[in-house]
Fold these 2 entries.
Entry 1:
Amino acid sequence: MRLTEDERAMLAGAAGEPRRWAIEHQIAVGEFFDAADLVPVSQAHIMADTESLGESGVRFLETLAAAPEPERRVRIPTLTDPRGLDFAVYKRLGQTDAMAALEARTIAALKSFGVLMTDTCINYQTILPPTRGEHLAMGDTGVVIYSNSVFGARSNFEGGPSALAAALTGRTPRYGYHLDAHRRATRRFQLDVRPHDLSEWGALGGIVGRACGSYWEVPLIDGIENAPGSDALKHFGAAMASYGSTALFHMPGITPEPIEFAGSVPDTVRIGRAELDAFVTAYGATGDKVDVVVFAAPHLSLVEMAAVADALAGRPVHPDTTLLVATSPEIKHAADRMGLTRRIEETGAIVAAGICFYQSYAAEMAEANGWQRLVTNSAKLVNIIGGYGYRPTLLSLERCVDSAVTGRVV
Amino acid sequence: MPTVLKCHPGIGPSVTGIALVAKDNFSARYDLDRKTGVFSRPTHALAGQSYAGKVLVLDQAKGGVATAWMLHEMKSRGLVPLALVFNRVNPILAQVAAFGSVTIVDRFESDVTDLIQTGDELRIDPAAGVVEILNR
């Protein structure tokens, strides 16, 4: 790889051990993908929840964070993905003091790098939306696909260590979605159905992602007549990235980049009502007892928070069911201020800030609370949570709320 | 003479181990019971099987950014695969290897899940971009 003078100095350790580690890591990744050089990035976003980090990951962060301040400070605005635990509600969720202690250590380490503790996977809605052509190092698959597709920004999936490396060097290896050549469409889908709600947008994303099945496929989705809106595209992209490891999609008339195919125009795969219904029905469990209803993954926007409050309409949550709503700290503050948090919590539901269920010791919560049947409107969560021993069901927001109130899948 | 498979140069130290092969994909968060070291996702082709110390031969990486930290944590407890031999990995698995958690190679001349069988003894040389099947 071609390195600048500044980059060679970092590699030689002249800028301290954290930056030496960071650029060495980036060069190894870059060479694996035949990157020609490193590209400056304007934001980094770090996934560093304690469930994933474990004791070993926290110790790694603490060791780097022990470097002198000029050597450890991040070089670009650096945000965090959701945390493992919300100190305000963790005991109600069956999480332990040991988890809270690990979380506190992680937060202290990240703050000493100068990281901004945004604790959210909807930073593109709430913190600083990317702009077209902006190179980024985003550490959440949903954030990457939204930033690439809806804004036309440029990021690969950056795991926690790599996003931290980008924060410390201010750059990332130039491969994958930083390059024009990888951003052309390789698959083509035609929608013959208009999704009814966010759960169906997620299901559509899941269908496309499952059909693509690779980080390197770029689907083009035709047939969307009206702009779906930010929350719909959020659920659509997050589910596609989850089911398919997909990082970029194009929607003619909706997304900003010109439509080009990587080679010859691929065959069109049609998706209609039958495919959509079959996807949802595969998770169906009408009549089953509901243990937990979760609104998360991605974090709820303020508009979604209002929709949950409206759907509950003051009805109490069933005593044998837990209803959890997870959003970002910013949106939680806004919801507090506007009375939405009170309207949701007075029904017995829990509003958590800065956590996102599956990143929050989901297996331990299931064991502590005896949870199995999980109902959600997030197709992404439905895909993930089976590996944690849950039996998930995908429903609309309104039917999720009705299930929470009656204690049965409706 | 061992069978020699060529691939793109990978990341990590050379290792020798036993293959566990499936035509399926991989995510640490979605598919694994990281406490016990087995595939836990009921629909995974390797559900119930132990991955610790094995060379996993699979198709693609999927989903999750979290795999980068998770394999590091799994390695600290000795419950990590020895190596990942895939048709195509995503950036996260390359980053996992660069973080020192596991040896990784990908991009073979044909479908690696057809070339290698479960139980094969493999020697992986990432710097050279070579996987040898020692028993065949």
Entry 2:
Amino acid sequence: MSGGVHDMGGRREEFGPVDRTEHEVQDWERLADAVNYVLNAKGHKTTDEMRRAIEGLEGYREMGYYERWAAAAELLAVEKGLLTQREIDERAAALEKRWAGE
Amino acid sequence: MIRPAPAAKFRPGDAVRVLTTEKEGHVRTPAYVKGKRGEISHVLGTFPDPESLAYGGNGLPEKVLYRVVFRQADLWESYEGSTADALYVDVYEHWLEPAGEEG
Amino acid sequence: MSGNGHDGHPHEELRHESSPWAARIRAVEELLVEKGVFTHEEVRAQIEHTEARTHENGARLVARAWVDPEFKNLLLSDTKAACSELGIDASGPVELAVVENTERVHNLIVCTLCSCYPRPILGRPPDWYKSFAYRSRAVREPRAVMREFGLELPEGVEVVVHDSTADLRYMVLPARPPGAEGMSEEELAALVTRDSLIGVAIPREPARTQ
């Protein structure tokens, strides 16, 4: 039995008790969620493309849930030719700078 | 049945086995049922093929989707619980083969 | 409507966020708006749509099914039709299915491959539902997982796990708790917790007094 990093069924040795703490959903997480849904609704990508993108993330185990969603949205936006990696990097850096400076 | 599936190869009650194929890339068949014997519980309908959709394909030809029931005792060693405990997984037709007689 | 981080943004400030993905997803959103792929309004509407959907939809479906056998049959056989009967928007490409708990059978829902969840009727999934621990263990040792949630089932009850791997999203129709006779549909719906619709719990029992 094998499977990708996302294929969790039965791997109980790797994980302990279920942590039932709920974190408050943050604004950027709502955004990651919504961006993905709107891109799907407009036919720019499919749920299965997003799943595939998420499953392929190197940091799958280390990333937070919506970090994976954000990363998948970014990957697919570039893959589909909607955006370039460079413009995303530049805009993200500019935003970080602006948020840090205020 | 949720959507029509006129060309369904299996019917409720049929014994099936999940293929052990190690396919690279995106599939929706969890590893833990591969090679396991189960029974068709429901024919759910015909759906676009996720293995095509995942790479920008059009999902054609569509695949028949089944709800397959497994006995938990057949899936895991030393399963804790009743022998009647069961697990249902939705599996596409191209991942299933007839299982024939028990054993 | 340029990407200046103001007009029409669902939320204005993110500087307190710690994840580096906060800036990245905002950058993606702004750029996609600038390119005309979608508008801020569409994103904001989607966020509002998501926030508006909670497990209260599922609870209403269950309460109606408890008092109306015909509706229960519809809920089990054609979940989307049952939703529209109660004015719940379950349109969209995802199919919904409901599985019934009885005296003999208890159902538990999981998605081992990702986080498939019947959002139109249950809203956003809780963190634990998406956790690696739940996804890996719910299929392997469902009784142990349910015990962690405080639910101990008798040996005689058959535990049935549904791994929603494909095009369907599952909800549990829990059994009506004892002592709920004569309650209104609204009162019944208040007994139906989110966790009871996933199967890690059973509905609340009605208060004995009052």
